Amino acid sequence: MPTPAPPSITSSAGDHDPGVARARARVEGIEHKAPAVARLGSTVVRFGTASWTDPSLVAPGVFYPDRATTPEARLKYYASVFSVVEVDSTYYALPARRVAELWVARTPENFVFDVKAFGWMTGHATETERLPRALREALPNELASKKRLYAKDVPREVRDEAWRIFADAILPLHEHGKLGAVFLQYPSWVRPAAHSAEMLARARHRLGDLPIAVEFRHSEWLATAQRDRTIRWLRDNQMSFVAVDEPQGFASSVPPDTAVTSSRLAVVRLHGRRGETWEKQGTPVLERFRYLYSENELTPWVPKIIEIAGEAEQVHIVFNNCYGNYGTTNALEMARMVSSLLSF
Question: Where does residue 247 fall: left (phi above 0), alpha (psi -120 to 50 degrees), or beta otherwise?
Answer without folding.
Answer: beta
